[in-house]
Design goal:
Blueprint (H helix, E strand, L loop, with lengths): L1 E4 L4 H12 L5 E4 L12 E3 L5 E2 L2 H8 L7 H22 L12 H12 L15 H13 L3 H10 L1 H12 L1 H9 L6 H9 L11 H12 L12 H13 L20 E6 L10 H6 L1 H13 L3 E8 L4 H10 L3 H18 L6 E4 L3 H16 L3 E11 L4 E2 L5 E4 L8 E2 L16 E5 L7 E10 L1 H15 L5 H13 L4 E2 L1 E2 L16 E2 L1 H4 L3 H9 L4 H4 L7 E8 L3 H15 L6 E7 L2 E3 L14 H4 L6 H10 L7 E3 L1 H30 L12 H22 L3 H22 L1 H4 L4 H25 L4 H10 L36 H10 L8 H32 L2 H24 L24 H25 L2 H22 L15
Helix pairs in contact: 1-2, 1-5, 1-8, 3-5, 3-10, 6-7, 10-25, 11-26, 14-15, 16-22, 17-22, 18-22, 25-27, 25-29, 26-27, 26-29, 27-29, 29-30, 32-33, 32-34, 33-34, 34-35
Keywords: Aminoacyl-tRNA synthetase, ATP-binding, Cytoplasm, Ligase, Nucleotide-binding, Protein biosynthesis, RNA-binding
GO molecular function: ATP binding; methionine-tRNA ligase activity; RNA binding
Pfam families: Anticodon_3 (PF19303), GST_N_5 (PF18485), tRNA-synt_1g (PF09334), WHEP-TRS (PF00458)
Amino acid sequence: MIISTNENNPNALKLIIAAKLAQDTFIVKVVKPGDAVLGRLPTLTLPSGTSLFSVSSALRLLLPVPKELEVLNNRWLEWEISQLQPTILSHTSARTSKIPQKSDLWSLLKDLNSELKDKQYLIEKHSNLSPADISIWVSLWSTILLADMKDNISKDLPNVSNWLVNIEKQPVIQESIKEFNLERGTKAIASIEAASWFPVNTTSSSSQRCESVSSDISPTKEKEIEAVSQEELNNIASSWTTGQYSEVKESSYPILPKKGERNVLVTSALPYVNNVPHLGNIIGCVLSADIFARYCRQRNYNTLYISGTDEYGTATEAKALQEKTTPQAICDKFFDIHNDVYRWFGIGFDYFGRTTTPEQTEIVQDFFLKIKSQGYILTEIVEQLHCESCDRFLADRFVEGICPRCKYEDARGDQCDGCGHLMNAVELINPRCKMCNTRPAIKNSTQFFLDLPKIEERLKEYSATVEKGWSNVARVVSKAWLRDGLKPRCITRDLKWGIPVPVEGFENKVFYVWFDAPFGYISITKRYTKEYKKWWQPPQDTKVDLCQFMAKDNVPFHAIMFPAYLLAANQNYTLIKYLMATEYLNYEDKKFSKSRGIGVFGTDARDTGIPADVWRFYLAYIRPETQDSNFNWVDLATKNNSELLNNLGNFVNRALAFSEKFFNSTVPPIERPEEADWTVLALAQRELSCYINAMEQAKLRDGLKYILAISKHGNQYMQFQQPWVKIKGTDDDKKRAGTIIAICCNLACLLSALLAPFMPSTAKELRSQLGLSNKSYGYIPETITNMLPTWHKIGKPSPIFTKIEDQKVEMLRKKYAGQQETNNEMSENKADESVASLEAAITKQGNLVRELKAKHDKSTWQPQVEILLDLKKKINDLKNNAPEKKLPTKNKKAEPTHVPEQNGDALTDVVALEMAIAKQGNLVRELKAKEDGSVWKPQVEILLKLKQRLIDLTGTAPVAVDKKSKKKK
């Protein structure tokens, strides 16, 4: 065997150790990175002639582990290649040898420390060193186990420290170290970097190169590059010379499904119109759906993308009350805002509508009557909350209280944001009117219910046939609902803003927004075309794939409710086939908050000066597909500067600029292609196949990273082939340079098509520079072919991306961090002063009310009660919007909240207790999110005592709490 490596590359030491353990004979061949195939080192060449470019694959080949341990071994090998090594390269440089304990690297080492507890090696019950042991040990030993970092590990991570020492003592390790003389530290890191990535911009900084290494070492899905087989080379050569490149079909209005074709109906959860959408809202629904719809169009699927604003419901009514206007005026205002935001982001709806239309009313009422005629509607008398002060029944969103399941303090009357549990408002513990903050009374009201238990079996049968095509979070949520058993669901409310119930005796009721909103997909399609039934009730010989995009909080209504409505109607309606839900996007480890100025909202994005396509790129790059993700300004700039500017932008610009300078802005002929040419095309074909596979499953984040992998291959190919040297040589050398540039121009053409779903404006600009028509974004093929004919005339090349400077990043980060981060201490003092003055005013007003009640009738004291309630609301608002105070750390115990003593003034005590409970509840929630039980459990006890005292004062019977069943938030 031959181990080919550049000097001082620690990854070669991994192969040497494994070869010695396997007792295989080998020789080490030191080469320059520029002389290696694709510049990837080390490589392991077997006696058969096969070369392995992946160190992990070579280790597994040399040291197979028992079958029962393969999964564990592979998991830690992937962890090392996808997380540990990139983090080392990103966080360590020539100017630093000490890694802060709060860095990402330290977090990874803590994970390793937990795994190594009570184990000598990573692979349990495996006495010999495993591939994972070798790979992780070498990466740590060769790079960071120096001076201060080693001391920190010994002190704080004993399991890791012992494991490192025990492995280093082994004879095979000592022999290998002596045989491959390695200079540890920054030179070892530089050798890894040199053999993994050649920066095409020689002026780029060290940190930029490290970012490039990071993404190059960690391909999407930890996909490792194996040696290109002869079959792959033959296939790419055949498709290149004989394949025909298709064109994108032009669609005519209206777009309708067709027999024998792939018909795709794309929708996104209808955005609600009571606020401006933020970045998380945008990537959670409309942007994800847009990327997928654009992909489908470029694959020549018959595609229709519709969406619109959800405008009925209590949130709109609440916003109207807040702004002292009508619900319709609120809808009109925010419909325009949403429309403008989505237009700027380049969201390509075929039609963007709204639910306050005659078509929506007609369809909702018609569906209700159909479902009722099929026997799926029940009539029941229900208890509803009625606010005596406001003189109205309270819709769910007008009520807040304690969740009966997880005890979250600020659960809404329809859903708990703490645990996601859906509920009826009367289930809340200690409910309060959101408008006046008083406790509502319970009154009876007759309502319609959807009989979900009656249709449960049909829902289960349907779900079993489609759930494999759903995202993971969509499957998890829907399975939980069906597993727990369905209950009848109320679908009407005693409100005014909504679609009237078309039944005698129910004239003063409207349909609940959860029943109404999903039908918006149908009514908006009807607004688009009168032939809407061809999409929603297609003939049996025409297949329609309904694909819906949303965040996880919308899953129950689309996985359970909407299909239940359609199945109950029993008229062969199109059901959801692909339900693509995401987790949540946070803003720099916080929640987006418009009122507090935290985060970028749709109307802010344009003001940043960052192009819409860069926003689209980054949001897709961090799309929360499998877990919550985090928007970060530094990361946005890094990804822009490394992935877009230094990787993708540099590749296409160099190829086109070379064509302009040396080949009169044409694509030169491909003459006598060599193995290196077919190799780079074969590698690009691998990425293309993975791209299509990912996009078909709406794994958009993965799809984007496969695009970037193609441009990385192109960059490396150009760097190693050096056409700028060959163009100065003999005639044969010049022809060789022409072949190289022709292949690079074709890869740039392929990239323009693959990039278009994510960055449509950028793709259009790139295609213009390629001399291609702007009418189409380009067909996305399954196999790579020669897309640009010989002597094709290109346009004028120019850079398509610009660098985001550090100064701009810092300015934007401060601008959207919220006012609570500036002059925090002064803000806290002002808040404290205001609270103190309000508390004094409440006490004074409470005394006045008590005195008036004792001597006068209601007409005298009722106005003073209103003043008292207004004061209480003001103090709650001030408290909720006040700057967050620093939480106590684990080394400093939290100060207990003062429990007010009873002083004979019941009204004053109730007010004070309510304030103390709210304050203590906030403290408990904050501590639970950041500290362990030893810190927050004592504060919970204080909170429970406060609540019990309030119960004693108000005379309400206490609610038993089963602490064992409480869920952690």
